[in-house]
Amino acid sequence: RVREKSFVGSFVGDNKRPTQHAGRVGRFCACAIKLNESLTLVERYDPLLGQWSSVVPMLTRRCRLGVASLNSKLYVCGGYDGSTFLQTVEMFDPATNQWKYVAPMNVMRSRVALVANLGKLWAIGGYDGVTNLSTVEVYDPNTDSWSFVAPMCAHEGGVGVGVIPIC
């Protein structure tokens, strides 16, 4: 369903493919990937037209990734490509219709939660192929760099994250 300010990534409009990851840029909602398949596929939903369309594929095939929007750009981070756990990060700019790599995270993270807050991206938890992660990294788009911040107390699996604005 598409709500006024959020997106739920499954069975919206005529898209009958279950999706796992979603982010919103402007009036477009972009979703990536069929469940547990490493793909480069990204689709965009226009709620005004009620239609899905493909956008330029990601540079790296991945599943179990983090997705968030920041400064009118869509970011994807980490994940798994079918053989390797990833620390790479890509940014999609709808104005140019292009993906580009930005600085990689400090560690590989599959099943990572990604959220935009305070002008930065926060990569929280995940799995590095060996263990569940309690570490948290923050991406600063002004310096194109990731920094570790205080970790979570514990991590027992996939992490969900959201931001509630405080007025």
Automatic annotation (TrEMBL):
Pfam families: Kelch_1. Keywords: Kelch repeat. It comes from the Eukaryota. Gene3D superfamilies: Kelch-type beta propeller. The keyword Ribonucleoprotein does not apply. InterPro entries: Kelch-BTB_domain-containing, Kelch-typ_b-propeller, Kelch_1. The keyword Lyase does not apply. This is Kelch-like protein 18.
